[in-house]
């Protein structure tokens, strides 16, 4: 089973985020990027599929800050190949990114394309269904378990309330992964450093993606409204709980 | 272009999801602003179901029983057919597990601009929408042009009441496009019963990433025991296997509205807020004073959840004994 | 005639296939030279094989560079009573690990690999120089690299350190927030470079943990009152990496060390002063191997060398019964037991009481060698945590205050005070907090 994993780095939500001078974008100076955690799950699921059914896992990402390290980490985890897309220019938005990815993987041999179900910066929609539509491939989002069979996969799609739908999908297909069957494995820095010495990343030219038709008008932190009334200590908290009648 | 709005009805097992009515309520407002009407795309539903959509001006019933069970491929095709027939200015889809299979696909295949994570929208000369991004930390207002466009709307942000009305709207039937059959629905799996039903609890002690590790959840469990409450959790903890799915609160988990919701180390991402915002009293404890949860909580403490848990458990035990 | 071997429950962990049980011959009746020795007096034991062990796992371990000394153990068992984990009910110690390896335990997939805190007490007493402080990191690195069963808590910590430069997973940008409440100016060298006497390596716990922040702020005030020109690396500082090196991630350690060494290289200073013994150990003994040689001291060494200036500043009394916990990495690992004591002796009205297990015999708090992030794991394999054992000792010697000088310890011991049900009976303070309390402010 040959699997392509589409990965991207997004602003790390651990940081405080601030708007820059234009009022339309995040202050890049203060930004720390991190791998989209759902893409990490997609990579893990891909590696599990390879361990179960053989085949090759290729990690693909757009050139950018610390992308090299991210791709080497994917190799350290067990991916067979890593593709870095260069020359696509500034790609702002999930739809233009999907176009870049779609053009790079079109015509390559693969059974599955896995990527995270969503990302915190998905202003204009999700990557998986967009890439799938551009390549005219079937797609299922919010996938939590993928089992390979002959020429198809059976999978679980998660609805709310813990309800799960079981589906069968013909290959090739695109899946948006919610959670891998196990926590994404840790790639020891020792191993990543070894790989950085021994492996080279493949590069491929990317065509600039067009915008998705959205223009950002402004970016603001959400209104705090009345906001929470702050309590100064556990005593106040106990009094509050008592007043609500939940302490017996 | 007309100011018409097309709302995608979401249903599972013959029952409409609340979000359908939230979208309907929003849709009517947007349609009114644009001088248009509101239609609902009911995919795989029957006349009886259409009867529940009284607030709509008309219902486009696409396909029949063969589409009754949600299928990403056939529903996306059915939606495209409905859009072609209705030619709306705005298509409203819920930002849900089903919606994710529909909205982006429709947008990519038709080239329509699409705004996701929507918490607000306006239909003037141009359609604008507010998307809540970065885990709820930023609201981004976007211009989608004059139309047509697609909006994926976060559930729980608009009143469902606005989408309810008596009466049966006129139903137009559309045949479902020929099935390509690459995606096949097998069956629905209900969650295992037997664990605590967090939707029936009066008090919930919810833990988020701030709890740090699976073993530390014990601290919250002790507090829950003292309070006669149950422990709930945010999605990342469930994904990591630290607690069973039956404890998950949020967009992809359960919706709860207990009397008291104590959120410990929960940052307040929109997906989680969606699951608990209608709780009676929301109390948040987080070491980060900028955590978005403080925007939704009624009360808060900028403190270490472990200290608070310990002290609170002690205080509650003392009062009991 | 052979009788069936009697049961030996204490040998029951030994897989039968590997160790033949002792068997014996006994005649029903035996008379020798007219003396009747029937019964057990005529029991004769058959020769028993004692060298037929499968040494695959032992050999695999001792083949790793650094782990060779495990093979030298001759089972004298001096190490077991010295091992803090065994004392805490962990059934541990180099001798036991050796024996279990001999009997076929794959250490790379066993709790034996993760309970050692590298406190070095065993090395101190071992006549054969079996060095767990070399063996454990070598074996752990192999286990991590091979993806063997490494405790999840530890992997999570590695992930956070790799991504954020600190084990809490806190934003690196918030590393200087503690300076706001210090009450004195703290020079942040990247923003405000100037030659300084001291480059103070603050450390993760001082920067981010609430009790660490208390100590950091106290340190800033004490250094200022001492008239020391000091600066910190601010958000450019990363975890020293020593615990990560010992817990199985030498690559991560290298990455951190290379970064910190490059940062140190940007500034002019006379000496580095560390809040914590682990950073001190790293910068003194490990960073030079990566090309980073800098004069470095632990803060107790720096301050006790300046007692002439410091003592007169300690004007407010601290009339409490205080005991002191020797941190393994300042004490046993680097030979300094005097500096912290000289500081405590300078505190007016402080009544000092040694712990039973002090100085070279100091009992580990459990935080070293990765133990800081393995409390959940340790709880499954020990009767109590090492910090709990130590706290009970402190109370037994009649102390009101347990003084420490390692940033790991305050949180560990405060936790242990509560979990042993001694809340309110023992206060845990960093020595610098005591010094700060004795000084006039402003």
The number of E-state strands of chain A comes to 13
The overall average pLDDT of chain A, rounded, is: 93
> Numbering strands along the chain, what is their spatial order in the largest sheet of chain A?
9-8-7-10-6-1-4-5-11
Strands of chain B, count: 17
Low-pLDDT residue intervals, each spanning 5 or more residues of chain A: none
Structural class of chain A: alpha/beta
Rg of chain B from C-alpha positions? 22 Å
Provide mean pLDDT of chain B, rounded: 91
The DSSP helix count of chain A reads 6
Largest interface, Cβ cutoff 8 Å: A-B, 84 and 99 residues
Any idea what the radius of gyration of chain A is?
21 Å
Q: What proportion of the residues of chain B form beta strands (DSSP E)?
A: 25-35%
Spatial strand sequence of the major β-sheet of chain B: 9-8-7-10-6-1-4-5-11
Roughly how many Å apart are the termini of chain A?
58 Å
Please estimate the helix content of chain B.
25-40%
Q: Unreliable runs of chain B, pLDDT <50, ≥5 residues?
A: none
End-to-end separation of chain B:
70 Å
Would you tell me the structural class of the helices and strands of chain B? alpha/beta
Shape of chain B: elongated
